[in-house]
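quick one, two chains, predict together pls
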Amino acid sequence: MLEDELTVNIRHRDGVAIIDLIGDVTTFAEEKINGAYRQVTARGDRFILLNFRQNDYINSAGIAILIGIVTEVNQNGQKLAVSGLSPHFQKIFRMVGLAQYAEIYQTEEEALSAFKRLGSVE
Amino acid sequence: MQIIFPSILGYEVIARDAVAALARRCGISSERVEDVKTALCEACTNAIEHGNRLDPRRKVQVVCAVDEQRFVIEVRDEGGLLPMLPRKPIHWSLDQRTSLRGMGLMLIVTLTDEVSVVADPNDGTRIRLVFYRDPAGNGASVSQ
């Protein structure tokens, strides 16, 4: 295996758990992404933003991980959005149907405003 | 242009970057180059995982050919399995698209202008990805 090139950070803003995904989202990302999701879920977070940064490579294995997250989000009654995707990967997300389950926003700020309207800030 | 690499996940990115550089020099639009990159990576990942079963001794070969109309990439493995290509989007509602491999092939079919695959137990599997070049013909002529 070549170098693992994904960094995952968790932050909180305005009642939203922001999971920054910095780098490549491939099969090697599974543990990090699922671990971050489990962490925010254990904390009781209801609004989750996957914030993509510097993602030159998202492949079908990475998309499958995200589909797994979407499934759990629905089961757990949470709300999920994504931001920061390049136009190409926005297209790919729409193509595979992910956009039906997670709203796509250009920026983190746009996503936070939308979450605020859904009640993320009490 | 020809690139040969071992069946180790991650090498597809190196092939992708080289092919993307060639595509840009052929005048393919930056938006279309992104499609080339994604389709190529999916084809290479299939070759590594399914064709060559992650055996690093087995090689994946990427061959690019460019003419006036088309940018063609062939990805060859040593496996000889024949993947079932999904049909075009109009048929998706009729298809089962649950497997990971199915999703990768679906991306390939959707992002390319033409795709074909041939498999021979003695000669491996070859998947051929075709991208039409800008009809305005703004691209520079590049010899292979």
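The mean pLDDT of chain A is 93.
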